[in-house]
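As a warm-up, study this chain.
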Amino acid sequence: MSTKDWLEKDFYKVLGVSKTAEQDEIKKSYRKLARKYHPDSNAGDASAEAKFKEVSEAYDVVGDAKKRKEYDEARRLFGSGGFRMPGGAGQGGGQGFGFDVGDLFNRSGQTNSGGGLGDILGGMFGGGGRTTTTTSTARPRRGADIETEATIEFAEAVNGVTVALRMTSDEPCKTCRGTGAKYGTVPKVCLKCEGTGMQTSVQGGVFAMTEPCTECKGRGLVVDQPCETCHGSGRGQSSKTMQVRIPAGVQDGQRIRLKGKGAAGERGGPAGDLYVSVHVKAHRIFGRQGEHLTLAVPVSFTEAALGAEIKVPTLDGLPVTVRIPAGTANGSKLRVRGKGSVRRDGSKGDLLLTIEVQVPHELTDEQREKLQEFNTASAQPDLRAGLFGSS
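Now compare it with the structure written out below.
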């Protein structure tokens, strides 16, 4: 890549962020794109590999606060493809004049050229007008995260449960044990990156760009005879059954993270994480309100009016006796302590009861006569008197 191309590239656009984006936003966007286009996830896809290089190149500059500052300043000065002197500073009487960026760099190595842009920017950024290739130390690679789902019963969500999950994940190829080489052969250290898997080039003395090695695609190793199972990638798929503990009190739709239970890492790197999205089946009579359980309890008109002791079910199967106070209105709330969902500290929430007074739809002649006598004897004031009158 020429220096002119370098300065004219919009790394913010490559990463899908604005020029004013915070470093955390830039990092988040880079990680998302790197996972999407990584060669390990797109074997044989040349376009994905090119996109991965482009994303890595962009992040190497704008992902570093110091380089980003230098990049922004350089684009401000030279991003248009020409270097503009202020009007009146030279010939042209206020019109200014331009130098082609490519020409300036090309002259930087000629005798008696007066320096060139490499020297100009070298004073600004502390670099010279040279191009070199450096390498960095190979690092372990963390395994990928795995997403899965589990559906459990209502009572299991309240009390906790261990479920068996069938997992398919990425791991070192079992045939070549992760080397990528055919059985009986061994991979060689990549000569281009010297086994680091990365290559860094300093162009024009302005910016250093680090990207996966184009020869070994970031692995640090090359094989003459690829493994027939993984085709030289060194990675394979594995299926296994894992026992996963769903904690008590989990809510429907909650996402649980199990650290280190994801795909295996490379070069001694740690395993990724396992994320389980939990779906809880609805219960026939019970509901959830945070750490509490809810239950609608039907009572008769006479039980509500006179008061009564009734039995109500609990989730653990043992009924409890509840006292209904005389004169209990429809929709009243009662609480049974310690019969709810399990909290994080091991204690339990409560069972919240909603009283639903049942009015009979049909009455016998005797029942109707008794209610008429009750209505006459009660001599209640007009309950709707407050609905009328001046506003």
